[in-house]
């Protein structure tokens, strides 16, 4: 199994590591690990990209620029914000510098065009082989119920209407305190169904709209010769944020479902599961989700293995395993080794070491040298 290496070199307005530090760690990885692709972003640092590009291509590997799509671009450009069903502009959830988890409208032409425009303006596309697109989703329940239901601006409203969704009906249900209409009743692993046919159609339309938006975003990159990959949620949480994983896996060079079991931040499995449950009605939702997912422990080994088994039915999947130690994420060498061993045993050709191999303890990487 090959390891795709994710490197967080900074955000648009901040730098967390430079060229020398990155190349030193990468050289160790090339010497000691079976390295696949390199995903680096989204600090604007041309000297790092030039040096890393040379090193990566000398080793016959590929370099992807890691870039957010529907959140965090407001740091550097004017974006169209999402509008919740009450007509309010959505709020973000600041997690770390440069990452506010403030989600923009996926239907907005401006938002769809922006990622490729930013690459053109701030990065050298001749140094990279592709783009690794993050925040390719609606807000999750971690942003609260109102935000998690997606955007209800005029353009999104129109997109729903075209698919036969009565948004006035949906908004009326949402405005009631009782949220049991939005608790799913069945699952095929990647999507959920809901007892109310209009709610069921709403979630399906939400995912179709996101897939279509991402196809348009991806198309702009392909026309300039770049491959496109997506960062996604774990299967159990993806449908709620508009991610149809089978459709996205077809579309992309690869997808990286974030199977983060030690990370207590957005995208972490525990964080997202607890947010779904707390926003959709507490105990009754908890019992239903446990039953649907057939687990008592969302971060336990059996559920992890079942999510991997599901993902192994899709093409182009490189599961993402976190390896860092920082506030809100407490990985140990044993956790890193055991998780990656399980991914290998599930039959995957690659896994992504997330989200920063440069700041990860070297002892975490050493445990992978023989897997
Ligand atoms: Zn919208």
Draw up the topology in text:
Layout: E1 2-8, E2 10-11, E3 14-15, H1 19-32, E4 35-41, H2 46-58, E5 63-68, H3 109-122, E6 130-134, H4 145-148, H5 154-162, H6 167-175, E7 186-187, E8 192-193, H7 197-222, E9 227-232, H8 235-238, H9 245-251, E10 254-257, H10 269-279, H11 283-293, H12 301-311, E11 320-322, E12 325-326, E13 329-330, H13 333-345, E14 350-354, H14 362-366
Parallel strand pairs: 1-4, 1-14, 4-5, 5-6, 6-9, 9-10, 11-14
Antiparallel strand pairs: 2-3, 7-8, 12-13
Helix pairs in contact: 1-2, 3-7
The chain binds zinc ion.
Query: What sequence of helices (H) and strands (E) makes up the elements?
Result: EEEHEHEHEHHHEEHEHHEHHHEEEHEH
Assembly annotation: single chain
What would you call the structural class? alpha/beta
CATH topology: TIM Barrel
Strand percentage: 5-15%
- Average pLDDT works out at 96
Can you count the beta strands?
14
**Strand adjacency order, main sheet:** 10-9-6-5-4-1-14-11
- How far the N terminus sits from the C terminus, by CA atoms, comes to 7 Å
Largest sheet data:
8 strands, parallel
The CATH architecture can be given as Alpha-Beta Barrel
Number of H/I helices: 14
Outline the low-pLDDT stretches: none
| Each distinct ligand | zinc ion
- Rough shape? globular
User: Radius of gyration, rounded?
Assistant: 20 Å
Number of self-contained structural domains? 1
């Amino acid at each position: 199994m090959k390891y795709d290496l994710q490197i967080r070199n900074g955000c648009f307005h901040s730098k967390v590591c430079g060229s020398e530090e990155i190349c030193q760690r990468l050289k160790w990885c090339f010497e000691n690990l079976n390295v696949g692709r390199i995903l680096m972003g989204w600090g604007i640092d041309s000297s790092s990209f030039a040096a890393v590009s040379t090193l990566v291509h000398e080793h016959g590997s590929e370099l992807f620029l890691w870039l957010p799509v529907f959140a965090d671009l407001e740091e550097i450009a004017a974006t169209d914000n999402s509008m919740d069903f009450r007509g309010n502009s959505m709020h973000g959830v600041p997690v770390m510098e440069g990452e506010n988890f403030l989600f923009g409208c996926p239907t907005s032409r401006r938002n769809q065009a922006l990622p490729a425009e930013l690459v053109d303006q701030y990065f050298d596309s001749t140094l990279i082989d592709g783009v690794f697109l993050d925040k390719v989703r609606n807000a999750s329940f971690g942003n609260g119920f109102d935000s998690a239901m997606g955007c209800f601006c005029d353009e999104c409203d129109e997109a729903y209407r075209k698919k036969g969704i009565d948004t006035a009906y949906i908004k009326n249900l949402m405005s009631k305190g009782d949220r049991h209409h939005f608790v799913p009743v069945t699952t095929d692993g990647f999507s959920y169904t809901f007892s109310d046919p209009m709610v069921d159609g709403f979630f399906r339309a939400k995912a179709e709209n996101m897939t279509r938006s991402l196809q348009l975003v991806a198309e702009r990159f392909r026309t300039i010769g770049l491959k496109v990959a997506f960062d996604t949620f774990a299967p159990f949480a993806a449908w709620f944020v508009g991610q149809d994983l089978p459709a996205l896996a077809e579309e992309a060079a690869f997808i990286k479902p974030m199977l983060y079991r030690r990370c207590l931040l957005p995208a972490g499995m525990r964080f997202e599961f607890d947010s779904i449950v707390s926003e959709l009605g507490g105990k009754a939702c908890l019992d239903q989700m446990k039953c649907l997912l057939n687990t008592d422990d969302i971060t336990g080994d059996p559920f992890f293995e079942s999510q991997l088994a599901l993902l192994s039915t899709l093409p182009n999947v490189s599961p993402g395993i976190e390896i860092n130690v920082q506030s809100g994420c407490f990985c140990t060498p044993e956790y890193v080794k055991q998780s990656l061993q399980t991914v290998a045993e599930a039959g995957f050709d690659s896994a992504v070491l997330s989200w920063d191999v440069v700041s990860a303890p070297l002892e975490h990487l050493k445990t992978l040298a023989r897997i």
